[in-house]
Amino acid sequence: MSSYAEPTPGLKILGMPRPLAGALIGILLFLLIMLPLKLWGNNSLFLLFLQLDMDLLGRIVIALTNLDLPEKIAEILSVVISAIPPGILGWLIGSTKRSTRITGMVLAAIYLCILLVVGTLLTLMAI
Fold first, then answer.
1. pLDDT of amino acid 89
2. What's residue 104's pLDDT?
3. 113: which residues sit within 8 A by CB, 6+ positions away?
4. Which of 4, 31, 45, 91 is the most exposed place for a label (fewest CB within 10 A)?
5. Is the dihedral of CA 106, 107, 113, 116 positive or negative?
6. Which segments in the chain show pLDDT lower than 50?
């Protein structure tokens, strides 16, 4: 008989701890929505606005850093930067604590509202 206590396995999703799985799911959902919009978003004004709204954080960060990047590299970097908040929100929503999950859902709703409003306003001002 061993003298140490056996560690209790944590709750897991897809074989990973819940927060990590939540972060990956958040990033994958973002990419699942964003990449088709990047490829086909120029077909209508609504899809173009939606794509620009989802890409807002990345575009702002790149503009603030004043980096002289080729256009394709800037687009990829913009998507990568814009995927960080969905990953953080997925981490919160995937938490084992109920209060953290609720906080993550509330923050996700606030983030989406702000993103759509500010992104649409900035896009309309640029047109």
1. 95
2. 95
3. none
4. 4
5. negative
6. 1, 5-8
Q: How many CB atoms lie within 10 A of CB 82?
A: 22
Q: pTM of the prediction?
A: 0.81
Residue recorded with tokens 């209060």: 99
Buried b / exposed e across 95-105, counting CB within 10 Å, b at 16+?
A: beeeeebeebe
Rounded Cα distance, 9 and 1, in Å: 20
Length of the chain: 127
CA–CA dist 123, 33 (Å, integer): 19
Question: pLDDT tens digits for 37-65?
Answer: 888 767 777 888 888 888 889 988 999 99
Q: How many other C-beta atoms are found inside a 10 Å radius of the C-beta of residue 72?
A: 8
Per DSSP bridges, beta strands 12-13 and 16-17 are antiparallel
When computed from its CA atoms, the radius of gyration of the chain, rounded to whole angstroms, is 18
Tokens of 50: 């939606």
Domain parsing of the chain, residue ranges: 17-126
